[in-house]
């Protein structure tokens, strides 16, 4: 096996949101020599940069890895797919771009689990602020000068506008900003876009240093294991085509995502000793929490057909496609500038005044997935109900010691009865919204699930909706928690709260694997903030003064909730 002649200060594994930020910051702010390794290709496909293009990328195996889960007996034997981005930028290049930070209580949970007060929302807020370049809000809750561009959607469909009005008719207040005090209510999502163009981790953090000789990016390169000598991580083994190579560096940082990071840890001898021995992998650190604690947001659809030509059906065909393409090129708006998930709502079916437990995504299209539904393509829309703080826990494991083998993913959706109960409650609220305000005049028929079950509170109806959930539940592409932080006396903790791997020197995890629990909402904003915290802790940085000042001066209830 060849050995690289170049020695790097840092080796970053995985060029998703966390990896792009980590590599970019280390080069730009610390002058470090960094190798960033990505299994996928460069982000040259124009569809990546057009917000609406992600819909066509989610099924493209050139840019996605399809992690098939094990059979779920409680889901009638289904094996829900969990696709993840495999391209420079990772999920930040193929996601729906929704910018949500979660709730203060999410981060309070992290403090309770780790004992580290620096993980509360007030202490993480400066990281959110310094990264954010918001073109709409300029207040204590938001940053305006950061590299990650955040803006209002460049196009709002008739369905999205009607949804927000209809949701208010059901008792939800209008919320102009889901990130500045409370999530509760209905409104329009902000997105990681600027002038109708996606702002990925590549755009925000790699582009400014792309020409710097201290940064080397290797795409199309798969890491097969971390090289560990004694209890010290020295480098990595990689494969590109038929070529295998060992590369060495001062620190190794895992940012490969919550499905691949535990795989690489286990292949490198870090995991449950018994499981590693079964696969004949020499044990470097007996950490039984590796691969456990898998959490993922899951959603179930409520689908309606429309009486008229509402939504985005047929907008990518014929004359519509030509017109919309020209509009986008000329003005950076129109349907091509839509992220499809333009509007949404947060609510709590158990306590109208409590913290939200359900997130609804409004899609101005009929949801089509041959693995999930049998609906036809026509004018209509979908309201997806998502449980934000699921109690079900899954796992990631290795079938063999072969690095080329796909890990076995068992997300365990709906295993906890509260997750099923909340999913049903979310669907019922979605149906109420469909039959309220301006949406009522648009809807011809609710076709999925059975409308009678949605309006009837009987035991039979509950079971009918439960069966719909089991048949249609799917990922929201947010896996987390599989190499989590924890207290030093926590036997299932993989990381210390500074994100270093327990028992191994020179190895850190900065991606969503590190999260003790999943946050309430889309995950990319927190992915950036947590990785930024990781870099700051590793490099001994202090809180940026502007962010500190804005934080202290804020009187916003969310910002002062966790102290």
Explain what the structure shows.
The chain is an alpha/beta fold and 563 residues long. The chain has 2 domains: 1-151 and 193-295 and 394-409 and 478-563, FAD/NAD(P)-binding domain (3-Layer(bba) Sandwich); 154-188 and 298-387 and 414-472, 2-Layer Sandwich (Cholesterol Oxidase, domain 2), CATH 3.30.410.40. It is 29% helix and 22% strand. The protein has 17 helices and 25 strands. Strands 1, 2, 11, 12, 13, 14 and 25 form a 7-stranded mixed sheet that branches. Strands 7, 17, 18, 19, 20, 23 and 24 form a 7-stranded antiparallel sheet that branches. Strands 5-6-8 form a 3-stranded mixed sheet. Strand 15, helix 10 (273-278) and strand 16 (285-286) form a beta-alpha-beta unit. Helix 6 packs across helix 17 (545-553). It is globular and about 65 Å long. Residues 85-108, 257-271 form the Glucose-methanol-choline oxidoreductase N-terminal domain. This is Choline dehydrogenase. Residues 542-563 are annotated as: Disordered.
Give the topology.
Layout: E1 2-13, H1 17-30, E2 34-37, H2 46-49, H3 54-57, E3 64-68, E4 81-85, H4 91-94, H5 104-114, H6 121-131, E5 132-134, E6 148-152, H7 158-169, E7 185-188, E8 190-191, E9 193-194, E10 197-198, H8 201-206, E11 215-218, E12 222-229, E13 232-240, E14 243-254, H9 260-267, E15 270-271, H10 273-278, E16 285-286, E17 298-306, H11 318-331, E18 343-347, E19 358-363, E20 380-387, E21 395-397, E22 408-410, H12 417-434, H13 437-442, E23 443-448, H14 451-455, H15 459-472, E24 474-475, E25 507-509, H16 524-539, H17 545-553
Parallel strand pairs: 1-2, 1-14, 2-11, 5-6, 14-25, 15-16
Antiparallel strand pairs: 3-4, 6-8, 7-18, 9-10, 12-13, 13-14, 17-20, 17-23, 17-24, 18-19, 19-20, 21-22
Helix pairs in contact: 1-16, 6-16, 6-17, 12-15
